[in-house]
Amino acid sequence: MFAASISLSLYLSISASASPNLIPNGDFEMGLDPWKTYGDSAVIQTLVLDQGRESGKSAKLNCSSFDGSNPSSHAMIAQAGAFPLKKDQWYRFSCWAKSQGLPGGQVSVALSDTKVWDNAGLSMALTPGGEWRRFETLFQANRDITNNGRLQFWYGETGTLWLDEVAIEETSEPHPVFTNRLPLSTSRNKIPNASFEAGSDGWSSLGEHVGWGNLTGLFGIVQKGQAADGDHCLKIELGPGKTITTYFDYFDPVAVEQKSPLAANLGWIPVEKGKKYTLSAFLRADQAGVPAQLKMVMGRPMAWSFSHEESVVLTKEWKRYSTSFEAMTSDLHVAVGPHLSGSTHDEATVWVDAVQLEEGLTAGVFEIGNSKLEIHSSNLQRAVISAPTSNF
Q1: Is 328 exposed, middle or buried (0-12, 13-18, 19+ CB in 10 A)?
Q2: How many CA atoms within 13 Å lie on the side-chain side of 23?
Q3: What is the domain-level CATH number for residue 348?
Q4: Cα-trace Rg, the chain
Q5: pLDDT tens digits along 302-320
Q6: Ramachandran class of 388: left when φ > 0, alpha when ψ lies in -120 to 50, beta otherwise
Q7: At which of 141, 171, 201 does a domain end?
Q8: How many Å is the maximal CA-CA distance in the chain?
Q9: Are residues 113 and 227 in the same domain?
């Protein structure tokens, strides 16, 4: 039930390309040349022309006997030759494929540099079935390719693969965005339900990473009364019988005592990259000297995230804590709460209230933010984001 439940769903627009196909005879209308089979001699495979997806021709690779005793034991159709790919340029790979009799159902695809036998940027798996299906992905070349490329399709079992309309085309750099972004706030405070007056709606928890981190939920209770702002605040209790332990059992069993359950908002907050922002929150503890943390996770789809963290020490009275930072991306979320990991404290109660994210280098007067949430936690797709000790 920890780890922030921010959706990592992405929208990636892949438009039609007018760039020329860099794969010679990708539609097999000129026969099989320069396509060939590769693999160990113990693997019995044949490559022939067959009926195309709609008309014309396709390539049919059939493997009738398979010996998996060495690295070259595979059925493979590939072409080696002059692929004029440029390092750092983005490309679109696409093909149509279908299969029959493949027990594993998977076909690997890669573009290799034959000078050093290393991948040149394209590596993916197809899952063709009994009907023609189109596969497409974008990739960035990690090196220049001239006459040293090999585009290859292979599988390590018996069965039949059909291919048609194989293409690699130059394209522009993709610009994916998160789908679960919060709406622009009409308040200076960009955090909805910032003082928990709507209960736990819009909040989850960010804990230490556990395995693949597929747990979600808010740790703590929203209490009425004794708040810093309004009528409600979040109460987080830690200690024997209160601190939760999360588990993961694949590959290596892991048990983590969650001693730093930060309250994190749900949904990516849209900000302006390069601008300065300030995160503030009212916090108190049941004893003086309890460590806490204010944290910002700045997400980038399909890339590493950035984070900014500020450690603070709490007193028994409500006090406002703040930290300022520069937005490294256009999407972020915040997290605040107790941070007992690595400290001498094993037991503490911490209250959180009036969390505010605003433009500028100082914390202004607290504003409630959008009291009526337009995105509710029950409607968000949930996935773990970065833990305090790692990036995701």
Answers
A1: middle
A2: 24
A3: 2.60.120.260
A4: 27
A5: 677 899 999 999 999 999 9
A6: alpha
A7: 171
A8: 80
A9: no
3-state helix, strand, coil in the chain (%, to 5): 0, 45, 55
pTM: 0.63
Residue 192 corresponds to which amino acid? Answer: P
For residue 52 the two structure tokens come to: 């195309």
Query: Helix, strand or coil for residue 11?
Result: strand
Same domain, 264 and 194: yes
32 burial class (0-12, 13-18, 19+ CB within 10 angstroms)?
middle
Q: Domain range spanning residue 292?
A: 178-379
Residues 215/1, Cβ–Cβ less than 8 Å: yes
Token pair for 318:
């409500």
What are the tens digits of pLDDT across the range 202-229? 999 999 888 765 446 899 999 999 999 9
C-alpha 338, offset from chain centre: 26
Sole residue written with tokens 């790919």:
85
State the Cα angle at 106 between 103 and 109, rounded to 5°: 150
Phi and psi at residue 378, in whole multiples of 5°?
Answer: -70, -15
b/e 214-226 (16+ beta carbons within 10 angstroms → b): ebbebbbebeeee
Specify if 6 maps to a domain: no
